[in-house]
Automatic annotation (TrEMBL):
Listed InterPro entries: ADH-like_C, ADH-like_N, ADH_Zn_CS, ER, GroES-like_sf, NAD(P)-bd_dom_sf, Zn_alcohol_dh
Keyword Oxidoreductase appears in the UniProt entry: yes
EC number: 1.1.1.14
MF term (GO), any: zinc ion binding
Domain (Enoyl reductase (ER)) ranges: 10-312
Family designation: Belongs to the zinc-containing alcohol dehydrogenase family.
The protein's name: L-iditol 2-dehydrogenase
Cofactor(s), names only, from the UniProt record: Zn(2+)
PROSITE patterns the UniProt entry points to: ADH_ZINC (PS00059)
Length: 356
């Protein structure tokens, strides 16, 4: 079978790899769609994975073979599949922090979603796959995992109806969060970004205000919009360390900052007095947990989260390097990129500029 295999930054090869062999309690899946996630891009560009790795974890496809001990699934079933499984019994799992479980990152599908076929191990069959109803497309199914990640974040901040929210970053995750904030009855949704195309899309997905932080002072704009109060929730969905002090500065008393993107680790200064005087909070959210997948599927099925409207580009497996360059371009007209293993090379959908 074919796969897009990572070897180094700028070196992803479309090549023949071995078809995975399944065990009696496993599934062989033909990948129909795999979303290109920001973490895939981060890993590929910053050399965070080993040569020979096949990335991709936002997966939907059709079962072609089931092991003899698999119950409830059969060849021909269309399913979504996520990549990590907690143990459900360790210290972190007992506290509901499933993504911190030591087993979580050690589990994965084989070889990865940017391949024609994958092996779904027994733990995943038990906990991180689900059937797609007829009205849900393969591309919608591939969005189950990122929507579940966003639900995990909203759970961490205990989002309440009537809350005002600032979402910093209008990429694929930010646009999901806009739709969820609207669904959860936010009173005001402000979105900031540097990209005019993404800001326009943010308004289309339900944001009330879109602030270009390259041309406007974000803190001034937010305080004017909120009549000096600040927002109840700030969600940082862009991996820029300097956004954290800004987030604290525009936070209302009793408010919460959700860090939803990986920072570089550079130290930044924030006003420590606000934690006691104003009871503000900073929380982080990494990945998802299996309990959010059914809800994510329902949100996609009912188009509360409109996956099809988010998808701006589709590429074949062989075009993964082009897809990464397209998605990573700072001024590109891109929201969500899908990799379609069955799509022929050269039939990319979505405009790719010369700079991408």
């Amino acid at each position: 079978m074919k796969a897009a295999v990572y070897y180094d930054k700028g070196d992803i090869r479309y090549e023949e790899v071995a078809l995975p062999m399944i065990g009696p309690d496993e599934i062989l899946l033909k990948v129909k769609a795999c979303g290109l996630c920001g973490t895939d891009i981060h890993k590929a560009l910053d050399r965070l994975v080993s040569p020979g790795t096949v990335l991709g974890h936002e997966i939907a496809g059709e079962i072609v073979e089931v092991g003899r001990e698999v119950k409830g699934y059969a060849a021909g079933d269309r399913i979504y599949a996520a990549h990590h499984v907690p143990c459900f019994t360790c210290h972190h799992c007992r506290r509901g922090a499933y993504s911190l479980c030591p087993q979580f990152k050690r589990t994965n599908v084989e070889p990865g979603g940017f391949a024609e076929y994958i092996r779904i191990p027994a733990l995943h069959v038990q906990h991180t796959i689900g059937k797609l109803p007829a009205q849900v497309s393969d591309e919608q199914g591939a969005m189950v995992e990122p929507v579940a990640c966003c639900l995990h974040g909203f759970e961490k901040i205990d989002f309440r109806p009537g809350a005002s929210v600032l979402i910093m970053g209008a990429g694929q995750i930010g646009c999901i969060q806009i739709q969820l904030a609207r669904h959860f009855l936010a009173s005001q949704i402000i979105v900031s970004d540097l990209n005019p195309f993404r800001l326009q899309k943010a308004l289309e997905f339900g944001a009330d205000y879109a602030v270009n932080s390259a041309t406007h002072d974000l803190e001034t704009e937010v305080m004017e919009i909120t009549a000096g109060a600040g927002v109840d929730v700030v969600i940082i969905s862009a991996g820029v360390d300097a956004l954290l002090p800004q987030a604290i500065n525009v936070l209302n008393r009793g408010g919460t900052v959700l860090v939803f993107a990986p920072f570089s680790g550079r130290q930044v200064s924030i006003p420590a007095a606000r934690f006691f005087q104003d009871e503000v909070k900073i929380v982080g959210a990494y990945s998802s947990n299996p309990y959010h997948y059914p809800t994510a599927l329902q949100l996609l099925s009912s188009r509360i989260v409109d996956a099809e409207k988010m998808i701006t580009h589709r590429f074949s497996l062989a075009e993964l390097p082009t897809a990464i360059a397209c998605a990573h371009h700072p001024s590109g007209q891109v929201i969500k990129v899908m990799i379609k293993p069955e799509q022929e090379e050269g039939n990319a959908v979505g405009t790719v500029s010369a700079g991408e």
